């Protein structure tokens, strides 16, 4: 049997890493700014006054994005099951901290009066809370499913959580019309641009989930297939 790497084994992880690259880079620049004691400005005042939530959010989100991407590799699941399990556990912790810190920042960081954040209205506030809670719920459902040896639902729920966690990458693209056409800028446009990023990711995730359920993989021993079925979280 040929166990060599195929393009399909890492095509999806590489695409996800490319999507995550810009938010991770921006996060690293923010961490460097905080570490260097940069000048306090209206744009960063809330972070300088209370840095722990944003530091946790950046680090956890980056871990979730990078390790989560490699969980989509069939090769890693079948040929390196122990690494898959360890990376999955760390990714889930990162995702949980990312969602929880995002909720904290939404609730307690003061409003910024600089665009585009100055257009963050009550609808976007509500949407951010909803996304954070749903992401935590999806991670919890994914953990519960794997404890029940329900691999199909485990993958479905963690994929949904990852889709929400990767919203920042897609939002880079959904904000392009916002910056190209300043006349569109407003609370509703800002909410739509942000919401579209999460919605697009969820729609793509649901397509993968439905495709997997319509075309289940041929039965193989649990350890070789996933590396998860023999170990409980």
Distance between the termini: 31 Å
Q: Count every beta strand, where a strand is a DSSP E run of 2 or more residues.
A: 0
Main pleated sheet:
none
Low-confidence stretches: 218-233
Mean pLDDT, all residues: 88
Into which percent range does the helicity of residues fall? over 70%
**Shape summary:** globular
Strand content: under 5%
Question: If you had to describe this structure to a student in words, what would you say it looks like?
Answer:
The structure is a single chain. The longest helix is centred in the first third of the chain and has 30 residues, at 7-36. This protein has 233 residues and is mainly alpha-helical. It contains eleven helices and no strands. The protein has one domain (7-225). Helix 1 packs across helix 8 (167-174), helix 5 (81-108) packs antiparallel against helix 6 (122-147) and helix 7 runs antiparallel to helix 10 (187-214).
Feature tags:
single chain; mainly alpha; globular; disordered C terminus
Q: Can you summarize this structure?
A:
The chain is an all-alpha fold and 233 residues long.
Layout: helices, strands, pairs:
Blueprint: H1 7-36, H2 45-49, H3 51-70, H4 74-79, H5 81-108, H6 122-147, H7 151-165, H8 167-174, H9 176-180, H10 187-214, H11 222-225
């Amino acid at each position: 049997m040929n166990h060599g790497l195929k393009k399909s084994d890492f095509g999806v992880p590489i695409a996800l890493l490319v999507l995550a690259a810009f938010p991770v880079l921006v996060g690293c620049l923010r961490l460097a700014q905080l570490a260097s004691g940069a000048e306090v400005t209206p744009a960063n005042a809330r972070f300088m006054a209370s840095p722990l939530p944003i530091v946790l959010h950046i680090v956890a989100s980056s871990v979730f994005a990078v390790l989560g991407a490699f969980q989509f590799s069939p090769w890693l699941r079948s040929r390196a099951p122990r690494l898959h399990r360890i990376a999955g556990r760390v990714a889930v912790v990162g995702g949980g901290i990312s969602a929880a810190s995002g909720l904290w920042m939404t609730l307690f960081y003061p409003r910024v009066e600089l665009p585009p954040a100055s257009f963050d209205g009550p609808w976007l506030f509500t949407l951010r809370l909803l996304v954070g809670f749903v992401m935590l719920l999806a991670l919890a459902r994914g953990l519960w499913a794997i404890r029940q040896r329900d691999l199909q639902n485990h993958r479905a729920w963690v994929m949904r959580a990852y889709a929400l966690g990767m919203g920042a990458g897609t939002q880079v693209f959904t904000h392009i019309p916002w910056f190209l056409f300043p006349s569109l800028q407003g609370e509703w446009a800002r909410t739509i641009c942000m919401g579209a990023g999460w919605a697009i990711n969820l729609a793509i995730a649901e397509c993968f989930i439905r495709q997997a359920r319509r075309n289940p993989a041929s039965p193989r021993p649990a350890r070789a297939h996933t590396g998860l079925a023999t170990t409980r979280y």
